[in-house]
Amino acid sequence: APDWSGGTRIGEALQRFNDGWARRGLARGAVVVIVSDGWESGSVDLLEREMSRLARLAYRIVWVNPRKQSGKFTPSTAGMAAALPYVDAFVSGHSLGAFDEVLAAIGD
Hints:
By secondary structure, this protein is α/β, with parallel strands linked by helices. The chain has one domain (about 30-105). The chain has four helices and three strands; from the N terminus they run αβαβαβα. It has helices at about 10-20, 45-55, 80-85, 100-105; strands spanning about 30-35, 60-65, 90. Strands 1-2-3 form a three-stranded parallel sheet, with helices on one face. Strand 2 (about 60-65), helix 3 and strand 3 form a beta-alpha-beta unit. Helix 1 packs parallel to helix 2 (about 45-55).
């Protein structure tokens, strides 16, 4: 895999979603769930811009980060720090049991 251990281009993925689907109404009033550890390998500025666009359309943004379950975790990666101001619920999701928290965040 060309991107193995290289992070994720979250900003580019969000831009494709926003340009192709969100502006057509798919995100309007929706609860958007993003599952990622926040390790952005692309442009952090693009990630922040696209999160801002998405936040204006969506009802809620729920970010599921499996690393959050660690007691030592802090959302200090540049990508996660850029995304958090636009996130309504930041939850773990590291196990099947943790998905109760995810479902509760979606239902709020």
